[in-house]
Amino acid sequence: MGTTQPAVVDESAGGLPPAGLRPLVSWYTGYRQAGVQPAVHVGLPSPFLTLIFTLDDLMEITAHPDPGQPGGRYATLAGGLHTSPALVAHDGRQSGIQVGLSPLAARALLGVPAGELTSLDVEGSDVLGPLAARIQQRLLDAADWPARFEALSELLLDRARAAADELGAGPGTAPGISREVRYGWQALLRSGGRTVIAQLAADTGWSDRHLRARFREEIGLTPKAAARVIRFDRARRRLVSRVRAGRRPDLAELAAGGGYYDQAHLDREFTALAGCPPTTWLAREFRYVQAAPDHPVPS
To answer: What CATH number does residue 94 fall under?
Structure first.
């Protein structure tokens, strides 16, 4: 008798949070795979904190952005901004929802400033408390991706409103974040990481030193490091868009349009932040790039 092969499941879905959450959350990505080839995925630096709620299987991190942190398995994963890649492994099965979480949302939704999570990954219950398990159960009970995204939005919005009330912030804001840090972060995003940092400090009325210190605390990176990550993320997005559209990568043009001196500069930055040059990363991640939903750029 022949053996029955397990059914292959390969789902992905994207969703947007309601308007009341948009200053804090940019997007949702749901994924469910079973019966596929085991793989190791590279978790790249980006302008988003890591927040993932698993569904059927625990998430396995074999290498964290901080090399001193040992690998582990997580039901819910929360992590800060980072400037080196993580490695995520699966044995042919993985499922969950990833949240595009702004670092400005850390105090409101995670209860800690983003600086406390820089380059670290922690179990979600360490920062969300019982809410992590509540969210996970609601996601498991939901019938489909739209219902999961709706349940997630409801619970995160309740959390954000409670934080706004506690911290005395108005609706649609980032509670607990100073006006200067919020302005600086949004200016870096608007410019694609090309803002002159000295001018940024002058615009806030703070010294370079004070701006660096407050950025490390509230964002998790200095303004210079944050700009570097934002430039890299924009370049990676544009590279992915070209490939999805069936166009050549054209790295020289990508470098010129992304604030890099030349293609060699882009290659060096990609290698430093992703662990390999862009062409190598693209070859390794091509299947993931083709399948994953296209997330909106934060603004």
So the answer is: 2.60.120
**Whole-number Å distance between alpha carbons of 227 and 222:** 9
Q: Same domain, yes or no, for 197 and 298? A: yes
Distance CA 92, CA 287 (A): 14
For residues 150 and 184, membership in a common domain is answered with no
- Digit-coded pLDDT (tens) for 173-211: 677 789 999 999 999 999 999 999 999 999 999 999 999
| Through-space distance between the first and last CA atoms of the chain, rounded to whole angstroms | 58
Task: For residues 279 and 259, state if they share a domain.
Answer: yes
Residue 250 in this model has a pLDDT that exceeds 70: yes
> What's the CA gap between 198 and 207, in Å, rounded?
9
**pLDDT tens digit string along 9-36?**
999 999 999 998 988 999 999 999 999 9
Is 132:52 a contact under the CB 8 Å cutoff?
Answer: no
Q: Residue 81 is encoded by which pair of tokens? A: 């901004």
Both structure tokens of 235: 């370049």
For residue 262, the tally of other CB atoms under 10 A from its CB is 11
Strand residues in the chain grouped as ranges (E): 9-15, 25-34, 39-43, 50-54, 59-63, 72-74, 76-79, 86-90, 94-101, 121-123
Instruction: For residue 272, give the CATH number of its domain.
Output: 1.10.10.60
The number of domains in the chain is: 2
Q: Give 145: exposed, middle or buried? Use CB within 10 Å, 0-12, 13-18, 19+.
A: buried
pTM of the model: 0.91
From the CA atom positions of the chain, what is the Rg in Å?
A: 19
